[in-house]
Amino acid sequence: xxxxxxxxxxxxxxxxxxxxxxxxxxxxxxxxxxxxxxxxxxxxxxxxxxxxxxxxxxxxxxxxxxxxxxxxxxxxxxxxxxxxxxxxxxxxxxxxxxxxxxxxxxxxxxxxxxxxxxxxxxxxxxxxxxxxxxxxxxxxxxxxxxxxxxxxxxxxxxxxxxxxxxxxxxxxxxxxxxxxxxxxxxxxxxxxxxxxxxxxxxxxxxxxxxxxxxxxxxxxxxxxxxxxxxxxxxxxxxxxxxxxxxxxxxxxxxxxxxxxxxxxxxxxxxxxxxxxxxxxxxxxxxxxxxxxxxxxxxxxxxxxxxxxxxxxxxxxxxxxxxxxxxxx
Length: 328
Ligand SMILES: NC(=O)C1=CN([C@@H]2O[C@H](COP(=O)(O)OP(=O)(O)OC[C@H]3O[C@@H](n4cnc5c(N)ncnc54)[C@H](OP(=O)(O)O)[C@@H]3O)[C@@H](O)[C@H]2O)C=CC1
Ligand SMILES: CC(C)(CO)C(=O)C(=O)O
Fold this sequence. Notes:
This protein has 328 residues and is α/β, with parallel strands linked by helices. It has 2 domains: 4-191, Rossmann fold (3-Layer(aba) Sandwich); 195-323, Orthogonal Bundle (N-(1-d-carboxylethyl)-l-norvaline Dehydrogenase, domain 2). The chain has helices spanning 20-29, 43-49, 72-78, 97-101, 123-128, 172-182, 193-214, 218-222, 228-245, 252-263, 275-282, 288-302, 307-323, and strands at 12-16, 34-38, 51-55, 59-64, 67-69, 85-88, 111-115, 134-140, 143-145, 150-153, 158-164, 187-189. The strands form 2 sheets. It has an 8-stranded mixed sheet with strand order 5-2-1-6-7-8-11-12. The chain has a 4-stranded mixed sheet with strand order 4-3-10-9. Helix 12 packs antiparallel against helix 13 (307-323). It starts with 11 loop residues before the first strand and ends in a 5-residue tail after the last helix. Bound molecules: NADPH dihydro-nicotinamide-adenine-dinucleotide phosphate and ketopantoate (KPL). Catalyzes the NADPH-dependent reduction of ketopantoate into pantoic acid. Residues 14-165 form the Ketopantoate reductase N-terminal domain. Its EC number is 1.1.1.169.
């Protein structure tokens, strides 16, 4: 298998999911790689004017114009050489994306990088692409796209990176970590990225649906009633119990640390809009299964009781059925 790092030419990167997260990483990667974005609803505006990124970390009013294509077939036919990386930053809707990205994935060559929330999201890629390295990542980066082509990024950027499965000895997770670092991003390599994935999903199961259901930022939710923050902590602790059943132990202090990421912003009253709240506001489908449903399934499989998570799951599903006007 050829490695982009072994050649003197720049790696070729295709972004699938040119939304909030993907655009910031493609912008960084454009400093060290040849980049192309698959755009859908923002195709016309990005093709004409490129993206504008306003970032508390990387600077304001950054104009970024990558090569743009409408789909992965066009990406494959317009590139004379195979893509070294396909970076998947779409929302996670189980069993949909592998077929869509297939035209741009060269067997035995293209590394598939998943920059997405959720748990248990990787196996469908292993099944569809048995000869391609898979990288699983966890991202901490509050970011939104509003209007199309304009990205607003807050003051956190962290990408935790590992091979999938964790037992793989592929060099690609290390190579990608170095690539992001050389581009000015913050990337950390882990032998067991699943531990970090569980730690992140503790936060997402609680905040994403709770903020979406209450149409509140995280800070607004905490300020909405005296015990609102305790409720969020209790949800997080339920998820930690599920993680423990799978061998990932998090103490109450660890869980409190995840909650504190939001609590520190209470004083400034500057809450963030988790991605599910953004989805509700924009009428987009939410990642209910990947983030909440998969945790619940795993809880049931091990007999772990999590009543709050189950309640949130039913409510979030009902909300999703109402806000999502289209197939995705
Ligand atoms: N936003 C945030 O603050 C954070 C998000 N995350 C996670 O990162 C991942 C990405 O989230 P985010 O960037 O917010 O998502 P966005 O909704 O902003 O972007 C997803 C992009 O994927 C595109 N897309 C989906 N399906 C297709 C398709 N078939 N063809 C072409 N394009 C497609 C969408 O296009 P279209 O506009 O046409 O629908 C959209 O541009 C998620 O897993 C999320 O949970 C993690 C941390 C923070
Ligand atoms: C809560 C947050 C912003 C953390 O990065 C996130 O993961 C999301 O919005 O989905």
